[in-house]
Amino acid sequence: TETRPEFIVSLLNDYFFSRQIFTLATPYAASPCVETLRKKQGPVEGLAAVYWNLARRLGLPVKPVLAGDHLLLRYEAPGYSRNIELELRGRARLDGSYQELYSLNAGQVSRGAFLRPLSCREALGYYLYYHGRQAWKEGRVKECQPVLALASRWYPDLLPLSLLLAEIYSSQGNLREAVGSLNRALAVEPDLLTALSSRAVAYEQLTDFEPALRDYQTLVEKRLPGDPFPLRGRARCLARAQRPREALVDWADLLKIPGLSPTDQEEARREMRWLRIGLAREGIASPDYARRFEAAQGLGQLEAKEAVPDLIAQLGDPNHRYHWFLISV
After folding, report:
1. What whole-number distance in Å separates Cα of residue 315 and Cα of residue 139?
2. Contact call for residues 29 and 46 (beta carbons, < 8 A)
3. How many Cβ atoms are within 10 Å of 158's Cβ, its own excluded?
4. Is residue 189 left, alpha or beta, with left meaning phi > 0 and alpha meaning psi from -120 to 50?
5. Going by C-beta distance under 8 Å and a sequence separation of 6 or more, which residues neighbour residue 203?
6. How confident is the model at residue 322 (pLDDT cuts 50, 70, 90)?
7. How many CA atoms lie within 13 A of 325 on its CB side?
8. What does DSSP assign to residue 62?
9. pLDDT band for position 308 (cuts 50, 70, 90)
């Protein structure tokens, strides 16, 4: 009897795809395993479940593997490892191809977030996540949340699950829960900039400015050239944290980005104008301004009423004793 792994996998593929004629169907199946068995067609998740259970009944070392949000199978025996791609009727696809197709970096693979065999418990968690994800896409929110909560118990380190939960919590205004989900995602993948960006925004909305600024700082250090998001977020957060001078520096740096859109340029200039107005108002109350005002009277600086019309309109009462002196300065 032939026992070579290559031969066994070819027999499995022939039986599954040619004799039983299981085929791929892209539409979502509410119960992928049951419907795939009944109709002999289904999504990748359904084909993988049936193929995997067939292999388990035969005592073969086949396990599910995740590549991002995509499910495949792997035959793994001593001295032999082969991926089984259900979209290609069981043909092999190399790990490097999955990394390229699904934008997986080497760190994610080395840390075991993707492209490693799943335990039965993790596989069950993934299937629960699959159901919850589809329910969320179809707007069945009440149905998806308990399913996803159960999925997180079975597979707490499932990166797509943590990101989906963060999206759901954010949409409902449950920002603390969203931050918790993003923390789990970043524990699995510390360099995931999308999760870091979402957490920075959530912290800012919660007015937790110190952790928000730490996240924005990390994003500034790692940002892609020409990406205004980190600087804009940090500038906004600094302003709300009552640190206007630092915020002004960030808005000014934002304007230096080549190819900055007109909308971003307008926002930066508008925010800088308001920050300067705020600093000017603070300066009016300063004792030092009284001394400078008296000195300026003799130099004729109070005649500069028309110098900055836009600023004049914003500074409040034009009859204030130091109003025109402030503008002239």
Report:
1. 49
2. yes
3. 24
4. beta
5. 179, 209, 211, 212, 215
6. very low
7. 18
8. E
9. very low
In the structure encoding, which two tokens stand for residue 247, read together? 């915020």
Please report, as a single letter, which amino acid is at residue 191. D
Residue 81 — φ and ψ, nearest 5°? Answer: -145, 130
Count of other CB atoms within 10 angstroms of residue 298: 8
Number of Cβ within 10 Å of residue 118's Cβ equals 19
Q: Could you give the percent of the chain with pLDDT greater than 90?
A: 53
Three-state secondary structure call for residue 97: helix
pLDDT at 155: 93
Candidates 227, 249, 75; CA nearest to 84 is 75
pTM, 2 dp: 0.76
Q: What tokens does 253 get?
A: 């740096």
Long-range contacts at 310-319 (CB < 8 A, ≥ 24 apart): 310/273, 311/273, 311/276, 311/277, 311/280, 314/273, 314/277, 315/277, 315/280, 315/281, 316/281
Give dist(CA 199, CA 212) in Å, integer.
7
pLDDT tens profile 104-157: 888 888 888 899 999 999 999 999 998 899 889 888 888 888 999 999 999 999
